[in-house]
Design goal:
Length: 248
């Protein structure tokens, strides 16, 4: 059975605010006030919004452009596909802006005898954490257009769109960023060492922003099979898409 939505009163305007089990931050669709559900207190961190540029009609152009491009796609994909669903969802993200420094020691085994190498790897990131507990959304493939963010404005959310609330708080998002950046640095270090013996990654946090971004979830049918595509509503760029085999 689907989880039953719960409701609180907005402490700013008094309107009902619905939220689902597991969500810990909710935004009033009537006044835009953002509340921490557990305490009923105002959300005190920056809440931003990326604007959507498409409606259900105009989103078809970037969809067709994606279908028409790339040598891996069937040549008739754009012409013979049928769009089944076009759903706009504002997904919640934490953007963790950091300088990450990893001090490491590893073994370089590509020569004989093997040698021990020590060093420091430093990178700057606007690391993206999807603020939902379970999702297959490809966060690493999504190049969020941060230059277009504005202060959250509930009046800019389309009536036909769905807005999801956060299931992850600020501290959890920072911990996830720490873990993921450490794993990223371990991967990058494969260029310099074959085995990492020791690594310590420290984050110099510059800023954290809670942000909603518009993502179009598309389902299309091609030669009897159904496929999915996600499109960035701010840029029209495909985030990830299922490609039918050329054998069909």
């Amino acid at each position: 059975m689907d989880a039953v939505a719960q409701q609180i009163r907005c402490s700013h305007c008094g309107a009902p605010v619905q939220f689902n089990p597991g969500e810990i931050i909710a935004t009033c669709k009537y006044c835009g006030f953002t509340t921490v559900i557990q305490t009923g207190q105002a959300f005190t961190f920056e809440h931003s919004l990326i604007l959507n540029k498409y409606d259900p009609a105009t989103i078809e152009e970037p969809i067709k452009n994606w279908m028409s491009g790339g040598f891996l796609k069937p040549g008739d994909l754009a012409r013979k596909s049928t769009l089944l669903e076009k759903n706009l969802v504002y997904l919640p993200f934490w953007v963790v802006s950091v300088e990450a420094k990893s001090i490491y020691k590893g073994i370089f085994e590509r020569i004989a005898p093997a040698i021990v190498k020590e060093g420091t790897l430093t990178k700057e990131y606007d690391w993206l954490i999807l603020a939902r507990e379970a999702s297959g959304f490809p966060t690493r493939e999504y190049k969020i257009p941060l230059e277009g963010k504005i202060p959250y404005d509930f009046r800019r959310i389309e009536g036909f769109a769905k807005l999801l609330n956060s299931e992850i708080n600020r501290e959890e998002a920072l911990d996830l960023a720490q873990t993921q950046i450490d794993a990223r640095h371990r991967f990058l270090l494969q260029e310099d060492v074959d085995r990492v013996i020791e690594i310590k990654t420290e984050l110099n946090l510059k800023q954290m922003v809670y942000l909603h971004a518009p993502i179009w979830f598309i389902k299309y049918k091609y030669k009897g099979n159904v496929y999915q595509l996600t499109v960035d509503g701010a840029t029209g760029m495909a985030v990830k898409g299922d490609i039918p085999s050329n054998r069909f």
